[in-house]
Design goal:
The chain is α/β, with parallel strands linked by helices. It contains 15 helices and 18 strands. A hairpin with a 4-residue loop joins strand 11 and strand 12.
Amino acid sequence: MKKKSTTFYKICCSATLLLCSLVLFSCQPKAQEPEGPVPPLKEMPAVKDVAMYQVNPRVFAPEKSLLAVADRIDSIKALGVNVMWVMPIYPIGIEKGKNSPYCIRDYKAIAPEFGTIDDFKHLARVCHEHGMGIILDWVANHTAWDHPWVKEHPDWYTHDENADTIIHPRPWDWYDVADLNYDNKEMRKAMIDAMKYWIADVGIDGFRCDVADGVPADFWKEAIDTLRQAAGKRQILMLAEGKRPDNFTAGFDMNYGWDFKDQLMKVFRENAPVSSLFDADKAEYDSLPEGKVKLRFTTNHDHSTEQTPPVEFNTLRGSMAAYVASVFLHGGALIYGSQEVAYPEPINFFKYVPVDWTAHPEIYKEYKDLISIYNETPVIRYGDIKPYPDNNILAFERSNDSERVLVMVNLRDSTITVPTPQPWLNKEAIELRTKFAAGLRDSVELAPYAYFIFQ
């Protein structure tokens, strides 16, 4: 009896231990399955409807900055933007490096400084949930010196003809990066494969392509055709940092309005006639195929490294007048993250720069109002342009069969009175930002850097 009892006790204990083990095992956290692509955006904006917000992660947080951007999604979306462009988030080269995000040593990974792939997918997901597309900055012209390709495939890079050594991109002084050789077909395949990963496996909505004019157009055509095929029914947006006409025959939807910005600076710095902006606009758009768009801006990460808009355009009011002139005349709209709070100092994107997102709420509201007008008044994006040339005031009408808008912007730091354009003489109009009703009589007086948007 004693032996039987001991045996029974051992059996019970073994069974109990086995049951406990099973319970404990079942309570352990399961290894997460790799997440698939981010659920697609319901609808990408048409190219002419793009209002873009550029994210430099290094102004959002010193670490885990992708999550910090996601935490600000409501504030960003409230500006009225519909596409987020995120600067490079890939691992940054160390060899010969200077901590530039445009010095990339792995095209399919994320730098720990910015977070993880799950952090990025979270950001993409919240963008889509807020009705915003998300595009990544892509650097196809060069890589870091410690990118694995340098040792594994030195023939994928441009070599000095005499020394037979890999060179940095010329004629620039970008010594921290190695120039890629687009005569090499295998390198092209690897580059397209890396781009396709972000479209097909991650689920982003396109790319802003750095130094696009430094890469052959036939590569871009092959890459963009492949990416659109990989996206399936999803629309993707392709923005070229360039101004070559063949950006568009290669398949890009937008490229940069560099020349317009240069002429705008001549108006502010050299007292060039304001009417010259119409010539700059026409020159840029004359070479564009139907449906393509120039991205217009007053600043971006490159320009804000030197001067932010309140300094570049003389005063805070000058920066707002410049923005209306840039965006409302003829172009896709861009806001560089930090300009909506009128950040006053240069932003070196090679390091973390803290931005006070509570500063200048009145400027945030002004950008919000302007983008709202841009979004809600289709004639501003699609209407015919009729210029009213003047040396000091940018005045133009945008119209279609049923709607007309008159934009008047004083680009001088003094009060100026100009005759009312004849078609608007003695008409009643609404100023769209302030909502006041105005009777347009013989002339219109504009305070320094003031603007009116009449409908």
